[in-house]
Design a protein that fits this description.
binds coenzyme A, 5 helices, 31% strand, eight-stranded mixed beta sheet, Aminopeptidase, alpha+beta, 202 residues
Length: 202
């Protein structure tokens, strides 16, 4: 499983330092509140909602870098990987939950590379177009830019993923350019596709 995340043995050795603020290591919030949402650390019991809400949905997964899940066990394995990644400080996966009904509706992810954080996100189709992802993204960006050691927050999206590009623009990110042949989106094609690169910095 560690291979999937590109986690090396030294990451695992450094595991203890991840939670120790006094060494200047980022210690992300397990929960972040917005007006309509709560971003909270994923847990294994979320697998069912993640699978049913979006992970198996061909339309939701069209532009992502992973194949749509075929069964719930695949989603459980994915959530286990998320938890391991959080523990080693490599990536943080927050489930997006609605305040009004505690429904898990999506996920937002930060992959850590020193002072640079790369974001990713996904939302169940029935909740599209209500501004939820823009709200979640803004909250995470606001938190991240307040951290002393985070300078750059960035993300990419397929050049055809208009909704995702728009979300990043609404969240204050700037399009830096096109990364040609950057990312494989296996639910469209096995060949790498062009992506827009967006960022916000301080
Ligand atoms: C991308 C995604 C997260 C957006 O979430 P969302 O909560 O629906 O986004 P918002 O409602 O905050 O904003 C969507 C914006 O895109 C616009 N939009 C959506 N589809 C569009 C289209 N086909 N053409 C033009 N604009 C479009 C909406 O009008 C809205 O902009 P507006 O507020 O200016 O009108 C969601 O569509 C999703 O989960 N997609 C599948 C997974 C994915 O692609 N993740 C990103 C991988 S990079």
């Amino acid at each position: 499983m560690a291979n999937l995340l590109n986690i090396c043995p030294s990451d695992l050795i450094n595991r203890r330092s991840v939670s120790l603020d006094r060494f200047g290591v980022i210690n992300p919030p397990k929960s972040l509140k917005t007006e309509r949402l709560r971003l909270r650390k994923a847990k294994l019991s979320d697998a069912e909602a993640i699978f049913c809400q979006y992970a198996q949905d061909a339309e939701v997964t069209k532009y992502v870098s992973w194949s749509a899940h075929k069964d719930i066990e695949e989603t459980r394995e994915y959530v286990r990987m998320c938890l391991l990644a959080w523990d080693v400080g490599k990536a943080f996966h927050w489930v997006i939950e609605r305040n009004e009904d505690k429904q898990a509706i999506g996920m937002i992810i930060a992959r850590v590379a020193g002072e640079k954080w790369e974001l990713g996100y996904v939302l169940a189709r029935v909740y599209w177009g209500r501004g939820y992802m823009t709200e979640a993204l803004k909250a995470l960006i606001a938190w991240a830019l307040k951290q002393k050691d985070i300078y750059r927050i960035w993300a990419v999206c397929d050049v055809d993923n208009i909704a995702s590009a728009r979300v990043m623009e609404k969240a204050g990110m700037l399009r830096e350019g096109t990364l040609r042949r950057w990312s494989v989106h296996p639910n469209i094609s096995p060949e790498p596709r062009d992506s827009y690169c967006y960022s916000i910095v301080k």
